[in-house]
Each structure stands twice: as structure tokens, then as C-alpha cells.
Design a protein that fits this description.
Blueprint lengths: L1 H28 L4 H10 L45 H11 L5 H13 L13 H36 L4 H15 L2 H12 L23 H39 L2 H8 L4 H19 L1 H11 L2 H6 L5 H10 L3 H29 L11
Helix pairs in contact: 1-14, 5-8, 5-11, 6-8, 7-8, 8-10, 9-10, 10-14, 11-14
Length: 372
């Protein structure tokens, strides 16, 4: 097992390099960039400004370029940046140096990989904060949504899927399948809007808060009140997120158990006089749960990093999904690549943990005997 883990860890290196290289190349051909963003702000044409362009000095996160200098009145001549007319060429060069665009792309890419290998992610282009501190600031929201959504969907879906498999074709199986299909067909963000209209002061009741992860007076509350307040704020976002995940995991569990129940070893176990419960949980459960375990990393990573973007926006939750989206819109490439690297690394590690969980569920699986 040690050799297998080592091989998987070593394979993560070219995988990460490949992911970063593909996205780096795409960014080179994408229109716009941090320099164009600053130029647009100086020209008054940027409508999504979050960067601070007044006051010079360190307002760009890296410092060095003075955006209020005398160069604003000079003619830039033939500039490669749209909208740069009227700006001093030296000022444009200062901006390029500040953001690192004065170096060739290959050199920038290799420097980025070397820094990331040492977990040195630098600072945001447009926020005066280290990227790791920025991620740590947004992490509680994404952890709360991703972790509780995954746990709730599995706690509900696995027992329900087993019950549907045992009762295959019954009235219970038919009507629950109808509910599941309807739940899967409803987009999470649309259901979130419906929840707001019904329960968050939209048009009917005002039972749940609509903003933030905790209340403003959370620090002054007792510990039981803090826990209640925390889940009070999470109730509607989690309900909206669990809907589709609950449907998918339930059907996956049911189909997996049905496939195992029809195998010969189950018939043999029953012929030995074992009860249905002993057959189901003593023999079928471990084999049927393998495919469910295999789907756990994808479900967790999806809900943790990507699936919560719209939910975070609708419920005004400032998490990693919203951070990544805003960083792309604002051309804050430092944050974009740092979060991409961290999330990709975490995804690869979670997949490795998932494979190791196979051996815990079914000791007959031996990864040492297979090639990676």
C-alpha cells in the first residue's frame, strides 16, 4: 500500500502542472487583464470596480505604480492596450512590471509554479491582503455549505436508497421515485428563490435570515445560542443545495443495492438461513457501498468549491465560490491561479483518500497488485 500511495503522490505533480499550464495558456488568449482593468478605471469606463486606483503607492496590492502621477496627460502613441491613449508609456510599463507582465509568459509560468510549490501565493492584485488570508476569510462559509450538504445528503439518501431497493416495485418505491425525479429536475438556485419568497420575508413568512453565516450579535451569545443561530442561518441555503444531491445519491444507492441483491452470494447466504437483515447489512452493504464511496469526493468537491456559487450569491454568503467568480470578473489572476492550485491539490488528495477508503470497506481490494 505504501508503494501505491507514493506513486499516486508522485503522479499529482504532473497532473497539477498540466492543470495550471492549460489554464495559464487560456488566460494568455483571454481578452482583458489586470493592466486593462486599471486603465479602464482611470478612463472611467470600468463598471465593476473593486480595485482602488486613487492615492498611488500600494493600492494595487503590489505597490510601485502611481496612478495619479503627471503621466496621465501624455500621449501613449501606439499602445497594445485598448483605451491606453492619453497615458504615459512609462506608466504603462510600471503597471506591467507591477503585475509581472514585463516578463515572458514561460518565465512567469515557471516562477508561479516555483512559488506555489513552496505555498507562496503572494497578494491579491486589487486587495491589500495575502491570498492565503483571503481564502481563510472565505473558508468558513464554503466549509459550512459543503460539509453539511454532503453529510445531510448521505444521511438521508443512503437509508432511503436501501429502503427503495428492498421495496423495489412497491407503492413506496414508486411515489418516492416520483418525488426524487421532481427534486432532481428543480434547479437549486430556483428552489432557493422559492424558499426566500416563502420563508425569508419575500411575500409570506419571515422565519429565516437572508444574509451572512451568523448574526451580528453572535459573539455575545451563549454557546447553545451560537449553535442554534449558526444552523438558523444555514437552514435555507442547505435545503436548496441538498435537493439535487439528495436525489442523485438516493438513486445511486438504490441501483447499487439492487445489483448486489441479485448476485449469487446473496442467494447462498439466504439458503444458509440468515435473516434478511443479516444478509443485507452483513453481506450486501459493504459491496454495494463501494460505488457510493467512489462518488463521495466528486460530490464533496463540487459542493465545496463550485456548486455553492449561486447559493452564496442568492443568500449573500461570502464564500470561496463567490470569491473565485469575482476574481475572474475583476481579472485578479493572482487569486484565480492560487485558488485553482489549492482546489486542484485538495481534489487530488481527496480522490486518494477515497481509494484508500475502499480497502477499509472491503479488505479484499489490493491496490498494490494493480498498475496506476
Amino acid at each position: 500500500m505504501g508503494a501505491y500511495i507514493l506513486r499516486r503522490l508522485l503522479l499529482m505533480i504532473p497532473t497539477l502542472v498540466g492543470i495550471m499550464a492549460i489554464n495559464f495558456v487560456i488566460i494568455q488568449f483571454a481578452p482583458g487583464g489586470p493592466v486593462e482593468r486599471v486603465i479602464a478605471q482611470l478612463q472611467g469606463t470600468d463598471v465593476s470596480a473593486t480595485a482602488r486606483v486613487s492615492g498611488g503607492g500600494g493600492d494595487f496590492g503590489g505597490g510601485g505604480a502611481d496612478t495619479t502621477g503627471s503621466g496621465l496627460g501624455a500621449d501613449a502613441g501606439s499602445s497594445k492596450y485598448r483605451g491606453a491613449q492619453g497615458l504615459d508609456p512609462e506608466f504603462i510599463k510600471q503597471l506591467e512590471a507591477q503585475f509581472g507582465f514585463d516578463k515572458p509568459p514561460l518565465e512567469r509560468f515557471l516562477t508561479m509554479l516555483w512559488d506555489y510549490a513552496r505555498f507562496d501565493f503572494g497578494e491579491s492584485y486589487f486587495r491589500d491582503i495575502r491570498i492565503l488570508d483571503l481564502i481563510a476569510e472565505k473558508l468558513p462559509v464554503s466549509i459550512s455549505l459543503g460539509l453539511w450538504m454532503t453529510l445531510l445528503s448521505y444521511l438521508v439518501s443512503i437509508p432511503l436508497g436501501i429502503k427503495k431497493a428492498v421495496s423495489d416495485g412497491s407503492r413506496f418505491d414508486v411515489w418516492t421515485s416520483g418525488v426524487i425525479v421532481v427534486a432532481y429536475a428543480i434547479p437549486g438556485f430556483l428552489f432557493a428563490v422559492l424558499l426566500i419568497v416563502l420563508f425569508a420575508g419575500g411575500s409570506f413568512w419571515d422565519f429565516f435570515p437572508l444574509r451572512g453565516l451568523v448574526s451580528e450579535n453572535w459573539e455575545s451569545l451563549s454557546w447553545p445560542a451560537r449553535i442554534a443561530d449558526y444552523f438558523w442561518h444555514l437552514a435555507l441555503p442547505l435545503t436548496a443545495m441538498v435537493l439535487s444531491a439528495f436525489a442523485t445519491t438516493t438513486l445511486l444507492t438504490k441501483n447499487s443495492f439492487l445489483d448486489e441483491i441479485r448476485k449469487q452470494y446473496v442467494v447462498t447466504a439466504r439458503s444458509k438461513g440468515l435473516t434478511e437483515r443479516q444478509v443485507l447489512y452483513g453481506h450486501v452493504f459493504r459491496n454495494a457501498m463501494l460505488i457510493v464511496v467512489a462518488g463521495f469526493p466528486g460530490a464533496f468537491i463540487s459542493s465545496f468549491f463550485a456548486g455553492s456559487l449561486l447559493i452564496e450569491t442568492i443568500f449573500s454568503l461570502d464564500g470561496l465560490g463567490l470569491l473565485g467568480f469575482e476574481s475572474v470578473i475583476n481579472r485578479d489572476y493572482a487569486v484565480v491561479f492560487a485558488t485553482l492550485y489549492i482546489f486542484s491539490l485538495m481534489g487530488l488528495l481527496v480522490n486518494l483518500i477515497s481509494d484508500l477508503t475502499y480497502t477499509w470497506i472491503d479488505p479484499r481490494i489490493d491496490f498494490e497488485t494493480r498498475e496506476v
